[in-house]
Amino acid sequence: MTCSLQVLGCSGGIAAGLRTTSFLLNENTLIDAGTGVGDLTLDQLRKIDHIFLTHSHLDHICSVGFLADSVGGSRKSPIKVYGIDATLSALKNHILNNIVWPDFTVIPSIEHPFLQLMPIDLGQTMEMGTYRITTLPVNHSIPAIGYAIESDSGVLVFSGDTGPHPDFWQAVNAYPNLKHLLIESSFTASEQALADLSGHYSSLGIAKDLENLSNQTTQVWISHLKPDGGNHIIQEILAASKHLPQKIRSLEANLVLSF
């Protein structure tokens, strides 16, 4: 059985028509929960049973609390939120703290909350019925992970936020049937120092590291482009990667990727 991943948001910031990172997998699962979640209908929101978070930065988690508030009362079971310990601790202590937002992990009751936090480990694989999802090592400014999602017919990898990391590429190359690689780039070549400081890829950094990708037929999608400067970033990537066999495109909202 194939899987589908709808891009709800993939921008490194906000502006008209731009939404931050969030993907809808097979109608019932979110990969990150940025502002793009808000474009789903109420009926679509009610179908979401699982949220897999890459890390705790606000552009990736801001809709978790809104989602619980919008549909928690009409559900029979809590929405399960998966993440590494550092991510879930940040979400619990700094967002769901009854100051910034109600703590829906105990509301309306401890026995029947709207949200259930589900700790996961680096390298862990979870069987989710129609797909299998595995956490991948990445290199960001805070603890973070990427995800490999496997269906019966292919694999999609999402890096989340990351800079260069040899272990990531080793993990990616372990999937010979990799159909799609969604990987970020947030800065131009002239902003390399800022990319290094913040744990992101620059344009030339990702172009260089894509040489590590062993599967020549994988479709590469560049995400997390900044609203101001994103076109420059993708142009630099394309110019520096002309020698690579893979097709490279910028990721866009509303795309649906099958694998």
From TrEMBL:
It holds the Pfam family Lactamase_B_2. Gene3D superfamilies: Ribonuclease Z/Hydroxyacylglutathione hydrolase-like. One of its GO terms (biological process) is negative regulation of glucose mediated signaling pathway. It comes from the Bacteria. Residues 19-200 form the Metallo-beta-lactamase domain. GO terms for molecular function: 3',5'-cyclic-AMP phosphodiesterase activity; 3',5'-cyclic-GMP phosphodiesterase activity. InterPro entries: Metallo-B-lactamas, Pdiesterase2, RibonucZ/Hydroxyglut_hydro. This is Metallo-beta-lactamase domain-containing protein.
